[in-house]
Design goal:
Blueprint lengths: L3 H6 L5 E3 L8 H9 L4 E4 L5 H14 L4 E6 L5 H10 L4 E5 L3 H10 L3 E6 L2 H9 L4 E5 L5 E2 L7 H11 L4 E4 L5 H9 L4 E4 L1 H4 L8 H9 L5 E4 L6 E4 L2 H11 L4 H8 L3 H7 L23 H19 L3
Parallel strand pairs: 1-9, 2-3, 3-4, 4-5, 5-6, 6-8, 8-9
Antiparallel strand pairs: 7-11, 10-11
Bound molecules: NADPH dihydro-nicotinamide-adenine-dinucleotide phosphate (NDP).
Length: about 325
């Protein structure tokens, strides 16, 4: 499978594993890259020294291209960006921030830059900022998300109409069938998050992985729009947030309720009651925990089957 995305990243399949806090360390990223996709180390949950170690281990575990995702909501950004250059990372996905700030620095250092957006307006801004490709992420996606609630189905064709650089679709994609649908809508590749949480190599807690497998339709919801909108599994913490809304909580009260490191507590430490559990709607279609390489090969196989089926339409 060859197209603008496989050429840009020098990979076999246009399947990109999303950078996800507390899930995507070097084990997952290297497994996906070794399988022919693009693995991403999620720097959001890593202090600078931890990130350096993960990059080095990823290089040892695979000799194929991989990327690092930097959500720009965390501190130590300058140090993180310096590490990426020093460690000769070749591809960086930035998210949750302004692409104008870091894209020139990364590009000057020979790094391909991709920015994650949730609207046409920001896709155009990212293109103007000089990024090499855009990830457009629909409302179905897990974790931090756009306020406008634009679904992948509506977002991808709208972004495609307005940008000329390669487009990667994200949000609700966990199978070859949805990958084909996204590419028919205009995407050159797909970014897949939730499906890779339920993999052997994800660093997420086993209880969280199992909860993803057990999740059904309607078990996730986007909330906390006043802070940073986030799609969560409905657990006790989620119900506490709903209760706070019912009582008319202010932004400060919501911030206080969220506290610090809730995401780590839930997804990494396995506190399924009090922790924050970020996953996409597509969790309802994930029924097993399997090796990352099998996720990639199953997607490719399903994609080819669905493509053949589509010719009879
Ligand atoms: P928090 O901001 O609550 O806490 C920081 C977490 O990141 C800790 O678990 C910490 O690890 C880890 N970490 C990794 N690298 C660093 C670093 N360089 N400096 C400090 N901490 C680091 O983390 P979240 O991931 O929950 O949230 C991140 C951001 O997103 C915040 O701005 C938060 O307000 C926002 N957010 C908003 C939400 C919402 O409104 N819906 C939901 C979740 C987050 P350790 O515990 O080992 O110190």
């Amino acid at each position: 499978m060859q197209n603008r995305i496989t050429h840009l990243f020098n990979i076999q399949y246009p399947i990109i594993q999303a950078g996800m806090v507390w899930a995507s360390g070097w084990r997952l990223a290297s497994a996906v890259s070794n399988a022919g996709g693009l693995g991403i180390i999620g720097a959001g949950s890593m202090y600078p020294d931890v990130l350096r170690e993960h990059i080095q281990k990823c290089k040892q575990a695979c000799n194929k291209p991989f990327a690092v995702n930097v959500p720009m909501l965390y501190p130590n950004l300058e140090e993180i960006m310096e590490i990426l250059v020093q460690q000769e990372v070749k591809i960086v996905f930035t998210s949750a921030g302004n692409p104008k700030i870091w894209t020139p620095y990364l590009k000057e250092n020979g790094i391909s830059v991709v920015h994650v957006v949730s609207s046409v307006k920001f896709a155009m801004k990212a293109q103007d900022a000089g990024v090499d490709a855009v990830v457009a992420e629909g409302f179905e996606a897990g974790g931090h998300n756009g306020r406008e609630e634009t679904t992948t189905m509506a977002l991808i064709p709208a972004v495609k109409e307005k940008i000329s650089i390669p487009l990667i679709a994200a949000g609700g994609i966990a199978s070859g069938r949805s990958m084909l649908a996204a590419m028919i809508l205009g995407a050159d590749g797909v970014q897949v998050g939730s499906r890779f949480v339920a993999s052997y190599e994800a660093s997420s807690h086993e209880l969280f992985k199992q909860m993803v497998v057990d999740a059904g339709e309607g078990d996730t919801q986007l909330t906390l729009k006043e802070l940073t909108p986030v799609r969560l599994l409905k657990n006790k913490f989620f119900e506490d947030v709903m209760q706070a809304y019912a009582e008319g909580a202010s932004k400060d009260q919501l911030t206080e309720l969220l506290g610090r490191a809730r995401a780590k507590r839930g997804m990494f430490e396995g506190d399924m009651e009090e922790g924050e559990l970020e996953i996409g709607q597509v969790a309802a279609l994930i029924h097993d925990i399997k090796p990352a390489a099998k996720i990639v090969s199953d997607m490719v196989e399903e994609f080819e089957t669905a493509k053949k089926e589509a010719t009879s339409l």
